[in-house]
Design a protein that fits this description.
single chain; alpha/beta; Rossmann fold; 2 domains; seven-stranded parallel β-sheet; five-stranded parallel β-sheet; 13 helices; disordered N terminus; binds NADP nicotinamide-adenine-dinucleotide phosphate; binds 2-keto-D-gluconic acid
Amino acid sequence: MSASDSQDSSAPTILIPGQMHPRVVERLGAAFPLIELAEGDPALLTADMKASVRGIASMGRVDAAFIDALPKLEIIANFGVGYDAVDARHAGQRGVMVTNTPDVLTEEVADTAVGLLINTVRELPRAEAWLRGGRWVRDGNYPLTSTLRGRRIGIFGMGRIGQAIARRLEAFGLTIAYHNRRRVEGLAYDYYPTLRDLALAVDTLVSVVPATPQTAKIVNAEIFAALGANGVFVNVGRGATVDEAALVEALSKGTILAAGLDVFADEPNVPQALIDLPNATLLPHVASATILTRQAMADLVADNVFSWFSVDRRALTPVPETVHVKAKV
Ligand code: NAP
Ligand code: 8YV
């Protein structure tokens, strides 16, 4: 536990379970007593610690048992716009606020998605490996690849990031369609009321939906079959939304052409079958991973905690499940 000399003795204690961006630790540590755990396991807390915690700043799992172990808990500030690691529904029922980091990473993640799509279709990482491995000299030119030209793009999850990806790909001269549960007002792209209908209408599916009980393994064999043999699948949302065994089969059998993935069901463990596939382009969950954007995310985590414990007693970016939660004054 660390506390700075300038802290008010009545300042709320903040728990940081496991890994955290250093800027969050630095900013919160300057104002609040901090408890930092090497691993995010509430069993590592003493009874006194459990009784004192009023806020959590987290990058990892905060489940219902964790929330229930902390009787004075008021706010969980999640580092990331996706907050599937936090049981937000349970937090909302217990009157605990949950915040995430929307908007500040949108353009960065959209840039990565477009880069991943181009790398997947044009095989640029493999072409570079060809040069570095001396094959240009030994074997001649890298083989011709498939193209982005003429592709029909389907965005699964036309939210903040989905729209930023669509804006980029529209400028590339590609046609865009999408599926959400609800049509987005004022958006001119074609809307499909089911994911299957979207997959049938396009040849390139870019997925950027959250992991929820409704989206678990929703991108499955049926969706790959609908995309077809020229089909490309890119995922920058969450790995849990994909049936990875079905994806391996679709890539191996040529049901689809190629896939580009930034996220996986059991990170950092990536199925060896995917690693072995030449038509899979794989990134280690780096879509928001720049110095600038991670700093902006860190500031939003800290600012949510500061705002909650200020006279305002208000969260800046509450998640929908806890938007009703009011601070106890
Ligand atoms: P957002 O603005 O909330 O967009 C999410 C979109 O998904 C919404 O348009 C929503 O529309 C749609 N959606 C949600 N559940 C659905 C369902 N069951 N069926 C169909 N559509 C559904 O969120 P965002 O800021 O764009 O972020 C999206 C996700 O990207 C995050 O939750 C996170 O998991 C992921 N992400 C990954 C990285 C990375 O590093 N790879 C970085 C940032 C974010 P409806 O509500 O109308 O269905
Ligand atoms: C981060 C993300 O890599 O914001 C998200 O949902 O997936 C990424 O920006 C992750 O949250 C860091 O923990």
